[in-house]
Design goal:
The protein is mainly α. The protein has a two-stranded antiparallel sheet with strand order 1-2. The chain is globular. About 15% of the residues are buried. The chain binds zinc ion (2 copies). One zinc ion binds next to strand 2 and helix 4. One of its GO terms (molecular function) is nucleic acid binding. Pfam families: HNH. It comes from Bradyrhizobium erythrophlei.
Length: about 120
């Protein structure tokens, strides 16, 4: 997360609340049709530009057959529920785990690496 964790946590909590979700219901958000559509748009955009999907951190290009190999990560939660494609980053599983691993104590309550975010 590029901005302070404190601000990001606040944004995530506030936006979830605006969406009618509790602060620990981020998982529900990730399963919502809106987010599924949003992550698909992000992946489609990259594919339209370069012809395939790859990790924007390390450049890794997982086989297309492994649907879960690439995650869509929130660079910021400022517009959660109404994200700009620029708020998101396509990232491979190992990079994603690393990205969230920094703050395990506060994030393990909601972060489930099996989910897309
Ligand atoms: Zn990566
Ligand atoms: Zn993430």
């Amino acid at each position: 997360m590029p901005r302070s964790n404190w601000q990001e946590h606040k944004w995530r909590r506030d936006r979830l609340w605006e969406l009618g979700l509790k602060r620990d219901e981020y998982g529900k958000y990730l399963e919502s049709p809106h987010w599924q559509e949003c992550r698909k748009l992000k992946l489609d955009e990259q594919r339209d530009v370069v012809g395939y999907n790859f990790c924007e951190k390390c450049g890794r290009r997982p086989e297309a057959t492994r649907k879960t190999a690439l995650n869509v990560h929130h660079l910021t939660y400022e517009r959660l529920g109404n994200e700009l494609l620029d708020d998101l980053q396509i990232i491979c599983r190992p990079c994603h785990d690393k990205e969230h691993g920094r703050d395990l104590e506060t994030q393990k309550r909601w972060y489930d690496p099996r989910r897309f975010e």
